[in-house]
Amino acid sequence: KQEVTQIPAALSVPEGENLVLNCSFTDSAIYNLQWFRQDPGKGLTSLLLIQSSQREQTSGRLNASLDKSSGRSTLYIAASQPGDSATYLCAVTLFGNEKLTFGTGTRLTIIP
Amino acid sequence: SAVISQKPSRDICQRGTSLTIQCQVDSQVTMMFWYRQQPGQSLTLIATANQGSEATYESGFVIDKFPISRPNLTFSTLTVSNMSPEDSSIYLCSVGPSGRGNEQFFGPGTRLTVL
Fold first, then answer.
1. Which residue among A4, A73, B37, B63 is least enclosed by CB atoms within 10 Å?
2. Binning pLDDT at 50, 70 and 90, where does residue B97 land?
3. What are phi and psi of A13, to 5 degrees?
4. How close is the nearest chain B Cα to the Cα of A73, in Å?
5. Which member of B42, B58, B103 has the closest CB to residue A105?
6. Neighbours of A78 (CB within 10 A)
7. Is A75 helix (H, G, I), strand (E, B) or coil?
8. What digits encode the pLDDT tens for the residues B23-37?
């Protein structure tokens, strides 16, 4: 059974700093990995999707990397801003199954 | 990306009643899913809503408690039946795959409180 873990559970950093969020998964036979952000009481916003054949994806200040063999992904946020404060979730799908298995989430707070 | 709406956005319900949540997508999609997010927890898949056939439920979720309809490729409903306070959660629908490598998109969620 696929298990997805995110460490740390919570993170506070001063505005302007670069930061890294971590995601690990137990079954490396993934089809893709997706990063989401969730604002309090809201739905999920898709940030980046990495296919199993890719090593990284970039969108603006965000960069996500994938190392399938070690079962890890990182989300790098450059020059953090207070608007980046949210919960960040990673989720994976396996081949032949569109079901998303979610990580436990990292609650990020950017301190002005 | 698909634009997804959900109704209602939130509700407060009495124990023993039922609530039907609607999910509408602005384009035809192959897959629609329903997730539950209990307070302080991550998301758990309830079921896959199949167009024209019965939904496929995950372990721990049953049709009598969470009946699902999917009459066409743009619309689905989830009913939470005979509610108890333990059903207080955010319920989210998602759609996929998109043309971009099975990326999935989520609706804004329905926040349910059961008294």
1. B63
2. low
3. -140, 150
4. 17
5. B42
6. 12
7. strand
8. 999 998 888 999 999
